[in-house]
Amino acid sequence: MIDNHAIRAEFPLLAQTEKGLPLVYLDNASTSQKPQQVIDAIEHYYRAENANVHRGVYGLSERATEAFEGVRGQVQGLLNAASSKEIIFVRGATEGINLVASSWGRSSLQLGDQIIVSEMEHHSNLVPWQLLVADLGIEIVKWPIDELGQLHLSDLAGLLNEKTRLVAVTHMSNALGTINPIADIIALAHQHGAKVLVDAAQSVSHMPIDVQALDVDFLVFSGHKMYGPTGIGCLYAKQALLEQMPPYMGGGDMIYQVSFAGTSFNELPYKFEAGTPNIAGVIGLGAAIRFIERVGFDTIAAIEEDLLAYATAKLSKINGLRIIGEAAHKGGVISFVFDQAHPHDIATLIDQDAIALRASHHCAMPIMQKYGLPATLRASFGVYNNRADVDRLCVALEEALAMLA
Ligand SMILES: Cc1ncc(COP(=O)(O)O)c(C=O)c1O
């Protein structure tokens, strides 16, 4: 067990009370809290550096541009991308996937092509592909999960064929906690000539990612799940793919030359960044990356692995509690249900004890369908959670069950 007291103290919201009690925040898979460093960076930008980027020749705008582009370099470093041209700022993982589906999908997929989508995807990595089905006549092929919530490479091998153009898979499931063997998935897909899109929304703040070592084609994540602000995220894509892909949106910044006769487009990455970007969000994302790098992935993993093991053991002892998602390789997410109570009733009751726990389908309805459930309760850990949070959760669950009985 690691003492993360000092890390927790960096998050001002966690010091406040809810219903007169210290808050236990266990909904980190949904969004994480923000450290002072991130809040300060955004405030500093608005107080001292606010100007539009890429446009002004005056000092203030140059400083804003430098700060903004500096974060692109930080993301490049975080992912070990070969070039900062491969980092596209978007609103979040959802927009990143929609960008790929609209731009790459519409320009390179055709009738009869197949996209393999895992059964554990968040809706944001299924619905954008479904939107292409009617227009392009492509087919979506489900890569099923087993009872423990795991994907098997042997199943993928059976699904891949000459029509497969893409495998869309999450690095870590937000609803089950399963961590997928993305290196092996990418290698196998590439053997069959298929590209791979990895949804790293849940993994990027918990484990190192090296896009070059993985040889991944597309990868997306959101800032707000990694201690950064909402409304900002990134798409990584290989430069050769981005060069071929048409613009996703038109407007300022993404152009080189415009006339009524026609328009030529800006170079990468700006070709995909139409309009004034979320500058403050990017600055905040940069501070979040600095926070993660300062804490370090070894410490983050040690804290979250300890909590996962501790919580799994403790929750398992509660009468009638069933864990959904028991993969051999899991991150800090535990979904569970009770035979005797509905998830929403439990979550509402434990809210009275200042415990923030998600009860939902977690935007992964196909997973709920697989297990025949309307919803699950989900505890998901961040770097500031501790065993005392788990203890309070378990006491509150027991009390809620007693009340419902
Ligand atoms: C695995 C996964 N993918 C994608 C998303 C979508 O992220 P956003 O809503 O930030 O675009 C989420 C959000 O919960 C997620 O957990």
Characterization of the model:
This protein is 40% helix and 18% strand. It has 405 residues and is of the alpha/beta class. It has two domains: 5-30 and 296-404, Alpha-Beta Complex (Aspartate Aminotransferase, domain 1); 39-293, Aspartate Aminotransferase, domain 2 (3-Layer(aba) Sandwich). The protein has a seven-stranded mixed sheet with strand order 4-10-9-8-7-5-6, with helices on both faces. A four-stranded antiparallel sheet has the order 13-14-17-16, with helices on one face. The chain has a two-stranded antiparallel sheet with strand order 1-2. α2 (36-49) runs antiparallel to α10 (279-295) and α3 (59-79) packs across α10. The mean pLDDT is 97. It binds pyridoxal-5'-phosphate. Pyridoxal-5'-phosphate binds at residues 29, 92-94, 122, 124, 170, 174, 199, 201-202, 222, 363.
Write the layout of secondary structure elements.
Elements: H1 5-8, E1 17-18, E2 21-22, E3 24-25, H2 36-49, H3 59-79, E4 87-90, H4 93-108, E5 114-118, H5 127-136, E6 139-143, H6 153-159, E7 164-170, H7 182-191, E8 195-199, H8 211-214, E9 218-222, E10 233-237, H9 239-244, E11 255-259, E12 262-265, H10 279-295, H11 297-316, E13 321-324, E14 333-338, H12 343-351, E15 355-356, E16 358-360, H13 365-371, E17 376-380, H14 387-404
Helix pairs in contact: 2-10, 3-10, 4-5, 11-14
Bound molecules: pyridoxal-5'-phosphate (PLP).
Pyridoxal-5'-phosphate is lined by residues 29, 92-94, 122, 124, 170, 174, 199, 201-202, 222, 363.
Structure, briefly:
Keywords: Pyridoxal phosphate, Transferase. With 405 residues, the chain is an alpha/beta fold. Helices cover 40% and strands 18% of the residues.
